[in-house]
Design a protein that fits this description.
alpha/beta; Rossmann fold; 8-stranded mixed beta sheet; two-stranded antiparallel ribbon; 21% strand
Amino acid sequence: MLSRQTRAQRIASLLIVAIALGSGCFAPSLPRDPQDLGGEHVSFRTSDGVLLRGHLYGRGSTGVILAHMYPADQSDWTDFARVLANHGYEALTFDFRGFTESEGESGTEYADRDLIAAYKFLRPRVSRIFIAGASLGAEAAILVAAHEQVAGIICISVPTSFGGLEVTKAITQVRAPILFVTSKDDPLVAGQPEILYRLTDAPKSFETYPGKAHGTAILFGPYGNELQNLMLRFMAANDAPVP
């Protein structure tokens, strides 16, 4: 598995290329280290028949789905999934279609469709579900939470629109608590999380870290432990059975 430093450098280099191309996060994905990510290997199909693959960590009555950003993959969430397992959660990572372990052609506009498949896979196994997403994954989290019952969502570096998705309307329909996280000088979302925060009617909180790190790159930087603890506190505070 890639070290934290190596993965952070990989993400940073990809984002620099994306900015240089003038296309936001639209940069080619690099192949991941082939080492097994561990956990229980799982798979499920989307509503349009695409086979997605993921890894399940831990056991518990509360599930957490971790949705990756573009152009990364589920391995960015592996370390935190293991942390969640150690705290009594059942954590699911998975690759969106066309990424690393999953089948199909890459299509960011279907990210919410892929995430709802993950939600339907995990839902019978647990009593309630949190969704944490980074960038594209955060957009998908908002779109799913607007229509499905969730205990809360965590949106890291979430744009108002990207990859064929747009969430300014959906964010007003979310009723579950939302934690927004961003970096102060992130050039890829530049004020967009703040726009969504203002549009949100649900219980909400906002955390800004110094620097330019985007999405899960924050987890591999100097504020990684702080972010992990913030997410754990958010889930603990909102982890109550639905009446």
